[in-house]
Amino acid sequence: MENIYDVVVIGSGPAGLSAGLYAARAKMKTLVLEKNKVGGQISTTNEVANYPGSIPNATGPSLVARMVEQVEEFGAERKKDTIKEVDFSGKIKVIKGEKEEYHAKAVIIASGATPKLIGCPGEEELTGKGVSYCATCDADFFTDLEVFVVGGGDSAVEEAMYLTKFARKVTIVHRRDELRAAKSIQEKAFKNPKLEFMWNTAIQEIKGDGVVEAVAFKNLVTGEVSEYVADENDGTFGIFPFIGYDPLSQIYKGKVDMDAQGYIPTDDNMKTNVPGVFAAGDIRVKSLRQVVTAVADGAIAAVQVEKYIEHNFEE
What we know:
Elements: E1 4-10, H1 14-25, E2 30-34, H2 60-73, E3 77-80, E4 83-87, E5 93-97, E6 101-109, E7 113-115, H3 135-138, E8 146-150, H4 154-163, E9 169-173, H5 183-191, E10 195-198, E11 201-207, E12 214-219, E13 225-229, E14 238-241, E15 245-247, E16 277-279, H6 291-312
Parallel strand pairs: 1-2, 1-6, 2-3, 6-16, 8-9, 8-14, 9-10
Antiparallel strand pairs: 4-5, 5-6, 7-15, 11-12, 12-13
Helix pairs in contact: 1-2, 1-6, 4-5
Keywords: Disulfide bond, FAD, Flavoprotein, NADP, Oxidoreductase, Redox-active center
Subunit structure: Homodimer.
Protein name: Thioredoxin reductase
């Protein structure tokens, strides 16, 4: 094994790029691996208004582009590969990709998570153009507009209540005839005058030319299909699916500890239960999945990797 990296970062969303930046700046031999396009979920966000210090009109792609620039400025290597298998059992960690095999003294898992999709026509095309999976990120764009929230669990109902601070009306669209959220959350929701409910209903199609303009609903009891069209004065409205996330952690099963949902628990220093393996960003067990927390995770993980290598690898 001639080519051993100090650290391999798996994933190049904000957490992975932050980790790569900090690791390379600390003069560690750093490789950042990415399966698809760089940037993760933030790449689909048209405007980044809640990232501290972001410039006016900053977009997800522009923020990511600057992060990539910094990572490369400090000398981190970047490669595109799909990881098929990992072996964390030895002192030197092995990461097997479709293209090649990588070896490292430490690994930072920053593979992220992906929102569960409704799975209807128009959803993918209009993501970031009226369809959003992050109320905290995008609520402000729907000030005084109408919004539909899809889901009935804790997150869906809490996010719907948050959106009522901005939208003039929020409708929760749920497949069942009662919410799954905790009773205490339900009580607050039913008292909120700006919240309405569509029971036994699913979204069949999202329509629009450049922005969301209409949505087709199907009543799952009667089979009736109805269409909601944006108010002509508004021109658009919001659709927020909150039906859960899927952590991209399948290849780490049995390699590091995970919770029941597949998220990776860490301590405050991003350490997993396996020495030399760290996790950062949305793949971690955490309360807030945002760019600001992802980049913090990445920075902490990289600093801890440096300390781990100092203590475990003598020159």
